[in-house]
Design a protein that fits this description.
single chain, alpha+beta, Butyryl-Coa Dehydrogenase, subunit A, domain 1, Butyryl-CoA Dehydrogenase, subunit A, domain 2, Butyryl-CoA Dehydrogenase, subunit A, domain 3, 3 domains, globular
């Protein structure tokens, strides 16, 4: 293959990925007018919208980012980012594929082989969704401070602790739980297991968060929950090795959803500003108070999208973990900020229309706001950039 690039192609999607983007945008447009219906279906029925998900899976998109297509071609993490962005551009946030893809990639990376052979095909076919249980009430995103214990007991593991917030447990077949290998020995490291959220000893409590990102949110309590040894992901005591590939993919895909959301908001605002008149015959888009923020947001979105695509492509190429962490944090930060700012200005431009619950814009606005706080807060991304990219000192202790 000729790897030479020209000035005209260096920053363009490869032909295969460009065709994928066009196909995804065409498919997503079929459901654009039904975005509220798609969102409500998962909330009301605890499963993906059947027509949309059937189309998604028929195109092979549920398996994007997973072996064997990670080796290149038209897929990879970049392919999944492109598809999720295309649906978000229609106001359709597909959060469960973000989690499932990121977790399946982590299982592929750290093993064991049996777990990868069991769960990756199920995720790739669209038959299975997987959730993540890492954050805790007192620790938030600081996973180093988790207190949940996943301790070996002969041929099983015993899980005790509390997790909050966990998305989509009513949809997920399994949840990846991150905890300490032994609370009595802080040097024992961390362990990750795939756990059935409906297993004996698990108490699930829904947290009323108004279905952010179109999914229900939950608290999980584990009271001496027994899981078999083959539920282990990665190696006992080395659970951090599971979390890093997961977070890199999750943040890159979250960023892609954010750029799609920003595009949706901009599109709504531009259309309204180009037609709405208050006095006279000139649309409000002629006013610089309306147009200049839209122009600035378009410029920021263009730059953020390039960073997101670059991040996903570089992860696909096998960059080292430190670089992947830096890239994915930067992409998530830029994309989350432009998503919220675009949604905020769209609400201002749309006026009362935006506040009509039937319109769906308020859900977009609140989802965009959430992206600045989760699945990792912007403050944590800035901490990473400051300490690990810029080399600035961190607080001791």
């Amino acid at each position: 293959m000729d790897t030479a690039v020209t000035a005209n192609t260096a920053f363009e999607l490869a032909p295969g990925h460009a065709r994928l983007r066009d196909a995804a945008r065409s498919a997503a447009a079929e459901f654009g007018s039904r975005a509220t219906e798609v969102r409500r279906h998962l909330i009301d029925h605890s499963r993906m919208h059947p027509e949309l998900w059937a189309l998604f899976c028929a195109n092979g998109w549920a398996g994007l980012g997973l072996e064997p297509d990670r080796a290149g071609g038209d897929g990879g993490l970049l392919g999944m980012a492109i598809v999720l962005e295309a649906f978000a551009e229609q106001g359709i946030v597909l959060w469960m594929p973000v989690l499932s893809t990121a977790i399946a990639r982590a299982i592929e990376t750290v093993g064991p082989q049996a777990a990868a052979e069991t769960w990756t095909p199920r995720v790739a076919s669209g038959a299975t969704h997987v959730g993540m249980a890492a954050t805790e009430p007192h620790a938030g995103h600081n996973i180093f401070a988790v207190e949940t214990e996943i301790r070996r007991d002969g041929d099983t593991f015993i899980v005790n602790g509390l997790k909050r917030i966990t998305s989509g447990l009513d949809v997920a077949d399994r949840v990846l739980v991150f905890g300490r290998a032994d609370r009595r020995d802080l040097g024992a490291g961390y362990t990750t297991v795939l756990l059935d959220p409906r297993a004996p000893g698990v108490t699930t409590t829904e947290i009323p968060m108004r279905f952010r990102e179109g999914v229900r949110q939950f608290q999980l309590e584990f009271d001496c929950v027994t899981v078999p040894a083959d539920a282990l992901v990665g190696s006992e005591g080395r659970g951090l090795a599971t979390m890093w590939p997961f977070t890199h993919a999750e943040r890159a895909l979250t960023a892609a959803v954010c750029t799609g959301t920003a595009q949706y908001s901009l599109g709504r605002a531009i259309a309204h500003a180009g037609n709405r008149t208050i006095s006279g015959t000139t649309p409000i888009g002629a006013e610089q108070a309306i147009s200049h923020p839209l122009a600035a947001l378009h410029a920021r979105l263009t730059a953020a999208r390039m960073v997101v695509y670059r991040t996903a492509a570089r992860i696909d190429s096998g960059i080292d973990g430190d670089t992947a962490a830096s890239d994915s944090n930067i992409a998530k930060l830029l994309a989350a900020d432009v998503a919220f700012d675009a949604a905020d200005h769209a609400v201002q431009v749309l006026g009362a229309t935006a506040w009509d619950d039937r319109d769906g814009m308020i859900d977009i606005y609140l989802d965009a706001r959430l992206s600045r706080s989760g699945p990792v807060s912007n403050e944590f991304t800035l901490n990473h950039i400051a300490h690990h990219v810029l080399g600035l000192p961190a607080h001791a202790g």
